[in-house]
Amino acid sequence: MLFSVCGGFHPLPESSQAPSGSCILEILSPEEALARCGTFPGSQALKRILQETAQYCRVEMMPDCALGTLVIPDRLNALKSTFSAVFCITGKRLLLIVPEKDQTSLADRLSGQELEDCQDIFQFFFRFLSLQIQGDMILLQNYEKRLATMEEAITESFPREWEKNINLCRRQLLKLQAFYQQMMDMCEILADNDNQLFPEEYSQHYSRLSNRIDRLYDHTQMLREYALQIREIYQSQMDLKQNDTMRMLTVVTTVFLPLSLLTGWYGMNFDNMPELREPAAYFILIGICAAIVLLEIWYFKKKGWL
User: Which phi and psi (to 5°) does residue 196 adopt?
Assistant: First the structure.
């Protein structure tokens, strides 16, 4: 698929040729790209990248082009869904190689109004990268609200699913943090512009974009530490609850320990135990047991154990 970029972002018919002097965005599947690999700049490096499994964002500056991969986590399901693409950018052409399963997602990513009025391929690519982090500050603020809600709930109750939610948030934030780290590395390489592929002003643009991503990275790191603190609070609350339970069991055991001693003592049934023949011995023993229990309860409350 061919798209004209200069003078507006719109598709060209499959059979048409690119107008002279225009900038073109071309979208291919990996199979189509491998079949035509020899016609693209940096063909050997591009073929190597296509044969590898895209696992992270990166860029390689070649003498006449910039090659790289994009692996962007889905904001709604960062752990299970990602958008991946291979890109090759030259002075007049941007090639995006996207698996068929991700082409619908690519169409959504290319539908932004910001891409409609791009004047050259460099501006288009820069805005495309910028769109990949658009709204992420609000996303991280939503994570912060979720974590704050969990923290408040932990102090009131201890549902087991909270620990699972906290761990899920930490894993999703780790995925986003890795993405921001990779994007920062990409933008720094693009800002260096070692092969002078981009116009001079884009070095500053990519430096500013790198700074924006750096702030998102720092915010994500703060949220991961916050989630860890909440998990530690949860664990400490669970330990306190367990300690209270053990203390109560210890108190109950201690209360019944002298009673068990009395029942064991008088359960021996020796012939010469005078209490066995007293008519009031049963009621006296009940009174002694009740007095022992009340005395122990008073003592435990005085010590703050109850």
Answer: 55, 35
How far apart are the C-alpha atoms of 184 and 191, rounded to whole Å? 10
Beta-ladder partners of 66: 61, 89
The first and second tokens of residue 161, run together, are 């699913």
The DSSP symbol for 18 reads P
> Residue 8 pLDDT > 80, yes or no?
no
The secondary structure of 262-282 as a DSSP string is: HHHHHTS--TT-GGGG-TTHH
Instruction: Please report, in angstroms and rounded to a whole number, the separation of the first and last CA atoms in the chain.
Output: 76
Amino acid at 217: Y
- Cβ count near 105 (within 10 Å): 18
Convert the pLDDT of each residue in 272-298 to its tens digit: 777 777 788 888 888 988 998 889 888
- DSSP annotation of 36: T
Spatial neighbors of 253 by CB under 8 A, at least 6 apart, are none
d(CA 6, CA 205): 19
Predicted structure pTM score:
0.69
Q: Is the pLDDT of residue 159 over 70?
A: no
- Helix H or strand E segment including 104: helix 100-109
User: What are phi and psi for residue 3, nearest 5 degrees?
Assistant: -130, 135
Cα 148–chain centre separation: 16
Per DSSP bridges, beta strands 82-89 and 2-4 are unpaired
Highest mean pLDDT pick, 15-24, 112-121, 245-254 = 245-254
Residue 60, judged by CB atoms within 10 A of its CB (0-12, 13-18, 19+), counts as middle
Contact assessment for residue 14 and residue 81, using Cβ atoms and an 8 Å cutoff: no
What are residue 26's DSSP bridge partners? 2, 95
% pLDDT > 90, the chain: 23
